[in-house]
Amino acid sequence: MPFIPHTEEEVKSMLEVIGVESIEDLFDEIPENLRSEGLTKVPEGLTEMEIGRIMRARADQDTYRLCFAGGGAYEHHVPAAVWEITTRGEFYSAYTPYQAEASQGTLQLLYEYQTMMASLTAMDVSNASLYDGASALAEAVLMAVRANRKSKSKRVLMPRTVNPAYRKVAYNIVHNQGIVLEELDYDVTSGTIDINSLPDEPGDFTALVIPQPNYFGSLEEVDALTDWAHQHKALVIAVVNPMSLAMLKPPGEWGNDSDITGADITCGEGQPLGIPLSSGGPYFGFMCCRQVYVRQMPGRIIGRTVDLDGKPGFSLTLQAREQHIRRSKATSNICTNQGLLVTAATIYMAIVGPYGLENTAAQSHNNTQLLMSELDKLNGVQRIFNSANFHEAVFKFDLPLSDVIRSLAAQGIVAGVRLEDDYPELGNCLMVCATETKSEDDIKGFAKTLATTLTRLQAAACPVQPKMA
Amino acid sequence: MLVFEQSRTGRVNAAQSAKKDNMVNVIPDNLKRKTRPLLPEISEMQAVRHYTRLSQKNFSIDTHFYPLGSCTMKYNPRACNQLSMLPGLLNRHPATPDSSSQGFLACMYDLQEILKDVTGMYEVSLAPMAGAQGEFAGVAMIRAYHDAQNGGKGDPARTEILVPDAAHGTNPATATMCNFKVKEIPTNSDGDVDIDALKAAVGPQTAGIMLTNPSTLGVFERKIKEIAGIVHDAGGLLYYDGANLNAILGKVKPGDMGFDVIHMNLHKTFSTPHGGGGPGAGPVGVSKRLEPYLPVPMVVENGGEYHVVTEKSRPQSIGRLSAFMGNTGILLRAYIYARMLGSEGMQRVAEYATLNANYMLAVLQKSGFEIAYPNRRATHEFIVTLKKQAKDLGVNTMDFAKRLLDYGFHAPTTYFPLLVPECLLIEPTETETKQELDDFMQAMVAIQKEAESEPEIVKSAPHTLPVRRLDDVKAAKELDLTYKGE
Ligand SMILES: Cc1ncc(COP(=O)(O)O)c(C=O)c1O
Question: What ipTM was reported for this prediction?
């Protein structure tokens, strides 16, 4: 029997001990009218070889050669050792470290992870993960409303340069509690938040969300934005790409105001740190904050302490924030988190180290600059924002973009992310990204393929003008 | 030793990350990072050795019996991991057009269909990323449903969610996240919901009830149809917490019990890895009247082609709950597992999980342990209460749990559910052999003897693990959450 080890002999003796005739008798408390007639849509069981054949056929069906899409999920090289170690059974098949003495491996790793994330973001503390970047932002908004005692407004400023999916998720989760997310428009030339559009009234907002780099890949003026927020008694929620922090000023250092610098809460998507693209998940959300807000943080937190002999050890701490203790008064309902992905990210950061992370970020930045200059040369394609960027850029096409995307897909290339669905004003706009995984040939080849594709589509779009009758 | 303590400035793994060439850097100076983050500078071998050694300090399903009640710690088949990580699946970017993703989308669609059948629900969305997020989706749908009543004017009086006192903490926490008040319903001495209390609690303020069946007490709620009637008659909806689906897989469908919305924990019932805390996957299923509100994205089939549908074509949806499609890699593992089990294999899961639990209950009872609900049949799990040991011998559940670690067993769930004092919630799962169960129960008997003759051994356990009992008070009082150098 698949995954069931019992022999007939054993079943017989077990039933005898229980004092019933058959396994069926064990279901005798379930009312007869609830018993199901069986499963009709579940096919017969398969052997490992048979399901392997199906999965391989399906996986092979989907392969492409090159991917220039980003938009919150980035293709980076993952060192071979990362997932070799991550999928060791001792990590893979353990659960939440409730029994600390039997979970020191996971606990120490999580403490190391918290240290790495705090250092990368220049924040005081980190939790042990949330589901993904989008839900982490939602949790950050809820946390800011709990933490900001100076503002009762329950209004949070949410720039349109924040990943639109994150904004939707944040809305879907927080609007139930009467929290309002006020949109903040962006400057159409720079593709960044227009500082002059920020409202003037003090105390009016609980928090300002600042993305860096923003969804378009552009760099926001984080210092001025942070100062504005703090002057207006709003907390700063930073949404950052952790990979970019190898090059960019970390949120803990944002702002020039001498009284209070730094973001108050930092969150984001951990995927760039060693997590495969995998159709968008599982990834992991991270969250860091100032020490003073740690009791408002959602999710697991690991602390270092000592055992009975005074020997250092690790355990879950501040559990009084969590649902299993506080129930309806918990900071969040989260229980199962994204532990395995954090395991991978920790091992990833340990292997690449500060220099490897910096090189990866820099090479991604570099490649994207090359891609931009190649695309700038093409007819019918125009870069639309003039601000400095990290590793993404937006281009407007003269020809219908869906035709371009489809045609490139047919040639094995995922061209990028189309923006029109989320930004109606950015019709025919494509966002592209070239990480360190792209060679110069890949990038130039992509530009060339794009050029020939555009020429072909152009020719098809305006054939010799038919004579009007 | 911490990884940071092995770090030496200037040690670089040159082969494992990108080379920098022809650097162009357009980042303005005021936005640049000025100091390097304190990441470890260690060789790949040091990293591999360090994390391999750390892994060896863990108990896990692959190394130990792990009867953690309510968590369904069954074996995670290796094929599920290997096949879900085939390059075509692992490297697929979420923005890949549907036309180039038919293989992947077929798996998602098939899984939706399988879960519909298993739950007896009208439609399923795979979007939620764990049980608690599935609960959130479910309760948000209940809210959306009530908001759409009275011709769209809504039913604002429905401000309360009922939750049995045995419920998991995520249930009340979820209700709060959806801005409902939580009203607890007591349990009677047999472990069933107190029907009179329920009748007294329902009314025009009732939005719904969240129930687990079998309940967290390890017994099947026999009056579920009556409960459904009472709540429905009051205008409320029924939410099914699917954490315990393993007990009834293929045997009873939550849809047939009268539930309007359910979540499943694929990391439990469908054997996806628990990963030291996660990830999970918490798909939701609904009855017809809640179908418009399901979270997106979902996968639909149209003339043999699969498409992702979003808010655009499902305007009443409670929306998306993740940036992309949820924990798809976990959904793939669940799909592969479901296909290997097949329809018969699924029913066997419930049968053998139940057999193992009832066998353990019988043996432990014969060995003198007090069963919390001795007159009830165990489902896939059951509760032992050690209140006598705590009172007479001064040895409590925590002590037993820690001593079990010395004997090489992960402890069952302790002190949950909250209403049974000194409880151990034991869930063996179907993948364990009789031998393993017997060994565990012998350890329980041995610990009982120790508790009687030399209780100090038990009270100061564990003795053989990497650390002894940890000072949790110090951990919370003198917070040390990051390494700052010695
Ligand atoms: C009964 C019950 N309900 C809900 C949950 C929450 O599920 P998850 O941890 O996947 O969020 C759990 C498990 O942790 C549970 O045991």
Answer: 0.98
